[in-house]
Amino acid sequence: MLRFSQCLLLLLLSTIVSSAQEVFVPMSLSYSPDGAYVVGVGREVVDGEFVAGTNGKVVVWDGVTGNLITTIEIPLAVDALLFDAAWSPNGDRLAVAAEDRKMWVLDFSDTAQPLGAVLAEVDTSTNFSVLSIAWSPDGSLIAIGGDDIAPRLEFRDGTTYEFIRASEYVVGAYRMAWNPDPQRKLIATTNLYLSGAQLADAATTVSTPPLWLCQECAPDAIAVPVAWNSDGTLLAIGHNNGSIFVVNAETDSVLFDLQTAQGVSVLAWTNDDQYLLSMSQAGLQVWNSVTGELEYTPSTVRTARFDINPLNDQLFFYDIESAPLGVIVDISTLLEPIPTVTPIPTPTPTPQPGAGWLLFVSNRPEPAANTNGAFNLYAADLSASSPFVQRLTNNADPNADDHRPVWSPDHTRVAFMRAIGADSDVCLLTLATEAVSCTDTPDVREDYPAWSDSGLYLAYVSAVDGELDIYKHTLNGDGFGAERVNLTHRVGTDGLDNYPDWHGDWIVYNSTRDGNTELYVMFADADAFNPADGQQRQQLTDSVDDKLHQQPAWSPLGDKIAYTRIGADGLEDTYIRPMTFSGGTWTVGPASAVTSNLPGRYQFMAWQTADPSQSTLAAVRHLNGNRDIVIITTGLGGGLSDLGAPVNTSADEDNPDW
After folding, report:
1. Average of pLDDT values for 399-407?
2. Is 2 in a helix, a strand, or coil?
3. Do residues 195 and 212 lie in contact, with contact meaning Cβ atoms separated by under 8 Å?
4. Distance (Å, whole) CA 535 – CA 549
5. Would you call 547 helix, strand, or coil by DSSP?
6. 40, 24 in Cβ contact below 8 A?
7. Torsions phi, psi of 273, nearest 5?
8. DSSP string for residues in 153-200
């Protein structure tokens, strides 16, 4: 029963879970009222796909230490999921919502034998599938929400679990939150077809239509999480397009319109209502509930779900790196100022060695003389709490552009391509002296430089012999030596060789020599390479569907490649493949999609060289007619982050290298 609800969830999982190992992914996390336990309900996932099986899991952690206490298996219909759970007000029972129309009630009392023993298995009767559940603050009612052609809320007795009634009006409930005021039997719900939230009155049996809050706030979006503040006067509503609205529930007036990245999945207020926390593709973010300003973006929390201890402001989250343990941190320790706009300094290139510096190009209109839109080189220090951007080159020539910058291994030089008119050269910029040296090959296109690990050679593309081939050029200090060797040319063979990237003894690149654009790898030592038979070259991909594979990039450890795949529809997306070398042959593993479910087109990937997990890349995103630099993280809690100002501007940014 793969319904729309699951499709939406799989779209989220594809951006946060790429592990080839089986990992538990919670659909919801919730603290018990006394803070003693944290419960997650969900299922195992591999490479963004739910593992086939008939059991859902209820995972129980210690709410103080994060230690795993027990895992409870719930039998389910095939392909069904556990979506939500709700604690009774005194914390002695847990109600679990199963998509196959079941409600399970588990024993968490002091006398439970064992902890989480099944007290009741209830067949619900109102909706085709059950997606959400909530216990009333006074414990008298359990509300069950779901998906159907005409979904309605189902109300059951909070003690006997007997059916009481279904709502008379259609009320879908992908997520729900009961107003914390026990006197107001009021439930806020979101469904998979509407923006805003519906307020359903559970206190009366008369025909009372639900109130639709924030109906016109985001008319083209879908609302997902909802969260009440402590006194039940304000409701936060998150949407899949990245909008979050804080609404006065009495007047339906919007207090704040907060904008973040797509895929808002969780909202939670701190106990003093001072902050509203959100989770989206931008990661965990902390908003000031008084001013509506984004105050903090903690960089240390990577997860898809979290919850806040109801007795203090401790945050519980879970990711695959800490599994099976949960992680508990005090929210105050995460408060870290978000990046603020820093004025561009004078163009003195002073970046120091270190993986925090990101190279890129931009045609932003500065210096003031750059009215022609020329591209210059820039470096941004992303390791600082406030990103610091410096311009490295200054093109006043209206016909000149600088592109494709790449760091030398010691971060003291930058190789790049400088185009003047129809001519382009590969150049070296020495940061300490600002000296620039170029190949200066007249009327020939030369492009896409790549450094050897030693820093003694550059590989790049040149058409000096009549077609695009990859050359290995010996460097002489801060300039180019006389020795230059063609690594890919074969007499009588058509085909363009392009986009080299160097790691160790091997260069990965793309070529059209088989008629389609495919990925290849070759030995970088020209003395051992035999151009006559290509013994040291190996084709890595072989498209059967006319997809193009190009712009490969080695991971820092040389055991993966990221690349751009262009489909028949012209869309560009990022993929990753594992690489292993044995017996003189490279073996390429299956491709994992990284950006196929994200809006826009993606190309020119660059790995973060200092990331030992090899889970962070910079890429160029084409979206709404603009090019900008985004950070893509893989694994649980991953996703996409827009660097924002001062790195990205209303101009175009391109060609990142870390």
Report:
1. 90
2. coil
3. no
4. 22
5. coil
6. yes
7. 65, 15
8. -EEEETTT--EEEE-SS----SEEEE-S-TT--EEEEE-TT-SSEEEE
| Maximum C-alpha span of the chain | 90
- Beta strands (DSSP E) in 494-554 are 497-503, 506-511, 518-523, 537-539, 548-554
For residue 67, the 8-state DSSP code is -
pLDDT of 594 above 60? yes
CB of 636 closer than 8 Å to CB of 14:
no
Of 154, 156, 153, 184, which is closest to residue 170 (Cα–Cα)? Answer: 153
Residue 37: how many other CB atoms lie within 10 Å: 22
Q: CB of 83 within 8 A of CB of 27?
A: yes
The type of residue at 46 is V
| Contact predicate 339/387, CB 8 Å | yes
Write down how long the chain is. Answer: 658
**Average pLDDT score over residue span 209-220:** 86
What CA–CA distance (Å, rounded) separates 377 from 366? 12
Kindly indicate the confidence band of residue 49, based on its pLDDT and cuts at 50, 70 and 90.
low
Rg of the chain taking only CA atoms, in angstroms: 28
Residue listed under structure tokens 């999945």: 265
Q: Which two tokens stand for residue 272?
A: 């003093």
Burial class (CB in 10 A: 0-12, 13-18, 19+), 36: middle
- Reply yes or no on whether the pLDDT at 155 is more than 70: yes
Cα–Cα distances in Å, from 386 out to 296, 340, 366? 12, 6, 21
* Region of poorest pLDDT, from 328-342, 474-488, 555-569: 328-342
Distances (CA, A) of 622 to 102, 115, 382, 553: 44, 51, 21, 19
Residue 550 C-alpha from the chain's centroid: 22
Residues 329-351 have pLDDT tens digits of: 888 776 654 444 343 343 333 44
Rounded Cα–Cα distance for residues 67 and 63 (Å): 8
Question: Residues 543-562: pLDDT tens digits?
Answer: 766 678 899 999 988 899 99
* 87-101, 333-347, 589-603, 623-637: range with highest mean pLDDT: 87-101
**Least confident residue range of 363-372, 419-428, 604-613:** 363-372
Please classify residue 545 by burial: count the beta carbons closer than 10 Å to its beta carbon, then call 0-12 exposed, 13-18 middle and 19+ buried: exposed
pLDDT average, residue stretch 123-132: 85
Q: Which domains does the chain have, with CATH numbers?
A: 4-334 (2.130.10.10), 398-609 (2.120.10.30)
Q: What are phi and psi of 516, to 5 degrees?
A: -125, 165
* C-alpha span between 188 and 401 (Å, rounded): 55
The kind and range of the H/E element at 140 are none
Better-predicted residue by pLDDT, 65 or 460: 460
pLDDT in tens, 59-89: 999 998 888 899 999 988 877 788 899 999 9
pTM for the model: 0.53
For 38, other C-beta atoms within 10 Å of its C-beta total 26
